[in-house]
Amino acid sequence: MTAAGPYPTFEAFYRAEHDRIFHFFRRKVGRDEAPDLVQEAFTCVLRSGTFDRLENPNGYLTRTARNLIIDRARTWHRKGCMLHPLDEARDAPLAPEQEWKIEGREIRAAYRRMLLDLPRRTRRVFLMHRLKGMSYRVIADHIGVGEKCIEYHMMRALARFRKAVAIRRE
């Protein structure tokens, strides 16, 4: 390519104007998309085939850059899209609620299985304490055993649940 304005080659033009156009796009669309638009702007200038005849290549590049921004806005408007830069405070990732629900169902199913696998008396003591909220003393009087026996059954049930949870996590 021959000289265009003050630039002997397109490469010299690119090197001289790259930073200016990058900053222009960065102000308009953000740091992430600016490099792609810079490349597109220079590509448009080169493909136009008029670079060697331009009296003001800087102005032509600037006009091309503005047109790219306008075209981009029209496309987004036509598609009904809006571009907003990421705001960490506002756009925090959503909690994986669906995954939590699935895990909750799995844990409840494992809990039911463990509960059914407990010996009958241990299961009864556990349910009386945890579901009905009965104290060890009341359970002991109801069943006709000592409080130490109730403590034994509760420890046994809790140990099995802990073991099941530990196995599940592995």
TrEMBL record:
Boundaries of every RNA polymerase sigma factor 70 region 4 type domain copy: 110-160
Keywords assigned: DNA-binding, Sigma factor, Transcription, Transcription regulation
Boundaries of every RNA polymerase sigma-70 region domain copy: 13-75
Lineage: superkingdom: Bacteria
InterPro entries: RNA_pol_sigma-70-like (IPR039425), RNA_pol_sigma-70_dom (IPR014284), RNA_pol_sigma70_r2 (IPR007627), RNA_pol_sigma70_r4_t2 (IPR013249), RNA_pol_sigma_r2 (IPR013325), RNA_pol_sigma_r3/r4-like (IPR013324), WH-like_DNA-bd_sf (IPR036388)
Pfam family of the protein (one): Sigma70_r4_2
GO biological process, one term: DNA-templated transcription initiation
Family statement drawn from the similarity comment of this UniProt entry: Belongs to the sigma-70 factor family. ECF subfamily.
Record protein name field: RNA polymerase subunit sigma-24
